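Bug report (template v2)

What were you trying to do?
Predict the complex of my protein with 2-acetamido-2-deoxy-beta-D-glucopyranose.

What happened?
Run completed; filing so the output is reviewed.

Input:
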Amino acid sequence: MRFLLSIASLAAIAAAFPFVAEQEGIKNSHIVRRQQSGGYQPGGPETCPFNPNHEYPVPVSDEFQYNGAKGGLPGRGQGGYLVPDPEDPDHQFIAPTDQDIRGPCPGLNAAANHGFIARDGISNYSELVDAVQNVYNVGYDLANFLALVSIVVADGDVLTTKVSIGCDATTRTANPLSIHGSEPGLDGHNKFEGDVSLTRDDYFLGKGDNFNFNGTLFGMMAETTNGTFDFNGLAEYRYNRYVQSRQENSEMFFGPLGLFQYGAASFVYELMPSGSDNYVPTMENTKSFFGAKQESDGTWTQIPEQIPANWTNRVTPYSLIDVSVQIGEMYGKHPVGFGGNVNGAFVGLDFPPFIEGGNITAAKPSDYACLLYQLISGPIPSSLNVLVTPTIEALQFVLTMIGGSSFTNLGCAIPVTK
Ligand code: HEM
Ligand SMILES: *[C@@H]1O[C@H](CO)[C@@H](O)[C@H](O)[C@H]1NC(C)=O
Ligand SMILES: *[C@@H]1O[C@H](CO)[C@@H](O)[C@H](O)[C@H]1NC(C)=O
Ligand SMILES: *[C@@H]1O[C@H](CO)[C@@H](O)[C@H](O)[C@H]1NC(C)=O
Ligand SMILES: *[C@@H]1O[C@H](CO)[C@@H](O)[C@H](O)[C@H]1NC(C)=O
Ligand SMILES: *[C@@H]1O[C@H](CO)[C@@H](O)[C@H](O)[C@H]1NC(C)=O
């Protein structure tokens, strides 16, 4: 086994969360036990919307080209155009119905509300890779990585490549012949979704609702950033949120995947701003993407996420190394411990070689990129109460889909799978 929690933290974790003990420690690498909200709980299959009419999104065409991304392949890598094209009949805003699934990601919710991904919220690998290139000009390497994480890090299905952008829709995402267990979708906690989000409650504090917009948190983000939503403001807000969770949430867990939260925060000032505002993040824009609406008493409520009017996407692709730079800088501004609260005390964890005793040793942007890679390419100590260890099929899928170059070019070690 390459990536082990330290023995001390593993013992503390196993004692606090018997679920771990049931798993023969982390050695049980072929069993995927996924934490999920089952049954009628928030995010669970019984309350998950069901749309009998799954319609694929209309792909880009010669007339409405966007980034030219189709079929899960790289597009032109050239942005700076209006999204949606005002003449394009298939990608205008339509509010979701109660049969449509939405989840913790404002970027994907907005893309679904504009029909760049299926409006019912059941998506798949190539759809996601195409959509984030065409809408946001996410670089192909990062688009590929995000889509792989969403499918492989236990939220979706590697055979069908399908994933729900919100609650558990296993009946529609799984291959009936290959069901190993449930596929919680992006709502699944401590998979891709984690504690210390910008505008979503921690799983424990929200009593299982870790995916709905929380207007109080949006208001705090707006206030802390002075309405600017820039790097400095978000670095500060992320730090405040960490402190808040660590104090308030007795089950707070902030593992290596916590770094994704910094990546998502960078999307607010790197992907959401519009050319019509000289690419400076604004309140108008940000609130439209988050679906935040301010009431007359100053509080924030939610309306469906929408791409703002006259929105012009970023010009150059936002690549894997770009996001790694932002993650490193934002985390580096206020370094915090990795680990979780166990019996009232914070226990640091190890994720060698980049996290030791809860402290990060990653220094260069490429270290952050390799750390991200390590998260999807080997057994993952994903949480204090569940250990996500991808199956051999999943690891094979990653190695095939990652195409070799984007991470090896950065000097990341390629793990050997047995
Ligand atoms: C395939 C691509 C993507 C996937 C699979 C994905 C998935 C996710 C997930 C699972 C979360 C929840 C993390 C958490 O809060 O615990 C999230 C958050 C977020 N995503 Fe995405 N995302 C993708 C692309 C994008 C894009 C293109 C944008 C840009 C607009 C975006 C913006 C955000 C933001 C701002 C958050 C933080 C929300 C909050 O904490 O309140 N995402 N994403
Ligand atoms: C994924 O979705 C696209 C449409 O967005 C569709 O053309 C493709 O067949 C789907 N792939 C799978 C494996 O279901
Ligand atoms: C929203 O977040 C605030 C601040 O963390 C919290 O006090 C409140 O309970 C949350 N509201 C809901 C509805 O979860
Ligand atoms: C917000 O404005 C206040 C008062 O001008 C200032 O002290 C604070 O540093 C600003 N915060 C950020 C993140 O810029
Ligand atoms: C729309 O954005 C373009 C630049 O992308 C700008 O020149 C134009 O003035 C904007 N129009 C409106 C109505 O805001
Ligand atoms: C990180 O390192 C510091 C010493 O520099 C130590 O006090 C701390 O306990 C370590 N772990 C965490 C989780 O912060």
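What did the reviewer find?
Residues 377 and 415 are 7 Å apart (CA to CA). The first helix runs from residue 7 to 16.
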